Amino acid sequence: MPSLGADMEAGTLVEQLVQPGEPVKRGDVIAAVETQKGTIEIEVFQDGTLQEWLVDLGTKVDVGAPLATILAEGEATTEPAPEPTPNPNPTPAPKPEHVAQEPEPKPIEPTPPQPQQQRSSPKPDSRPRITPAARRRAAQQGIDLSSIASKGTITLADLESPTPKAAATPKPAPVSSMRSAIASAMSRSNREIPHYYLSHAVDLTAADDFVTRFNADRAPQDRLLLGAVYARALAKALSKYTEFNGHYIDDAFHQSGAVHLGFAVNIRGGGLIAPALFDAEAKPIEDLMTDLRDLVERARTGRLRARELSEATITLTSLGDRGVDQLYGVIYPPQVAIVGLGTPRLQPAVHDGEVAPRLTSSLTLSADHRVSDGHRGALFLKAIDKNLQRPEQL
Amino acid sequence: MNKQDIETAVKAELNRIAPDIDADDIDRSENLRDEFDIDSMDFLNLVTALSKLLGLNIPEADYDQMESFDDLVGYLSKKAPA
């Protein structure tokens, strides 16, 4: 069972996609596990033949535990010792005997209890239907929606009716399993990582114009979003500022050659996942956009791969166009940096010696002082800014 | 496709993207993306799906004609062959 990222230590095997005796190739999806962040697909990391499943469907499996025996080519089929697979190590050429290990230090604390077995992927009826106005009101007043008696959709009237008045004294709502996964990773981050924070105002007019020009004659399925431009500008800057790209494990920073860019995706109903766009440094912007669409779709339907959750080397979080000016990210361990973009808005700015309305936002960095300092962090943000001013060269 | 069919199609696509919000409960003249709490990726997926379903070219330059639910249905009705 490969790593599922810093915040999850187990999953329940729900699909065995390969039968014993069938050949498998590195990268094949051979199983799926149900986790706090939805259904996660498990890839195999070596070629061979699946000899035997070691875990029954419906069984909870810890990260690092063997899932199945795989025989390498030429290996005897009578091999009794269970060989774990897949190997979570991203580096290739694992020896067949290699035991799958959790690649990160185990958190000191036990896993927080999971109060309920709840699917984290959005399901139509997993929570009460509610009108937007009522949802805002309930959030403002801390009203527990499960306490509201309503036939069908909850409306403002339901919140104001005399019976649920008592609900205004908020009773603690059960924490969703995704929320406890996030809480666990973020607690570890704040406990272990000495964060520092930088902010830089960035002019996004050129990037936005580029997207507008690019999209003008293209069908919707071929259009870009600003998020892809941010991702590309960030990945390119990392080629020079390598100390922000990698993992901090066992008191040492392991720099990554490839940029596996974790892209923070908001999940309806509450929650956040930042799966990786692989090899972002090597992909043209159109390809990054294609990958991003696919990734966001799967993050929201709950069908990511384990590698996408465990191998991101840096995170990008963009508030999109309905958010606020600025954010202060919390680093997702074992990564060492998170770059944020606030919501772009038109602001008066000095451009070419004149005050003009420009599309502006705040570019922020939270980074790990064990690996870098503010001087390099500032240069890194400036490099991203520079890339955003020349989007056609991305 | 008449206006009613288009409205049904728009509701179906929105329900796929935002299953927790009932299109019958929203303010149809308010900002669509606020009412359904959808981001730019959701909106792009909505436009992609509607464009394919209705066989329409929906340029990005027309996005400002699709601010609210009513605007969107009106825009598509005007463009779609009757």
Helix and strand pattern of chain B? HHHH
Report the uncertain regions of chain B: none
CATH superfamily membership of the largest domain in chain A = Chloramphenicol acetyltransferase-like domain
CATH topology descriptor of chain B = Non-ribosomal Peptide Synthetase Peptidyl Carrier Protein, Chain A
Strand content of chain B is under 5%
Total tally of structural domains of chain A? 2
- Rg of chain B over CA atoms, rounded to whole Å, is 11 Å
Domain Lipoyl-binding (chain A): 1-71
Cofactor (chain A): (R)-lipoate
GO molecular function, one term (chain A): acetyltransferase activity
Domain Peripheral subunit-binding (PSBD) (chain A): 129-163
How would you describe this protein?
The complex is a heterodimer of chains A (394) and B (82). Helices cover 24% and strands 24% of the residues of chain A. Chain A is of the alpha+beta class and 394 residues long. Chain A has 2 domains: 1-120, OB fold (Dihydrolipoamide Acetyltransferase, E2P) (Beta Barrel), CATH 2.40.50.100; 193-393, Chloramphenicol Acetyltransferase (2-Layer Sandwich), CATH 3.30.559. In chain A, helix 5 crosses helix 6 (285-301) and helix 5 (226-238) crosses helix 8 (374-389). Chain A is globular, with a radius of gyration of 23 Å. Chain B has a single domain (3-79), classed as Non-ribosomal Peptide Synthetase Peptidyl Carrier Protein, Chain A. Chain B is 56% helix and 0% strand. The longest helix of chain B has 15 residues, at 3-17. The A-B interface holds A 122-124, 127, 129-133, 153, 155, 212, 215-216, 219-221, 223, 225-227, 266, 268-269, 292-293, 296-297, 320-322 and B 18-22, 25-27, 33-37, 39-41, 44-45, 47-48, 51-52, 57-61.
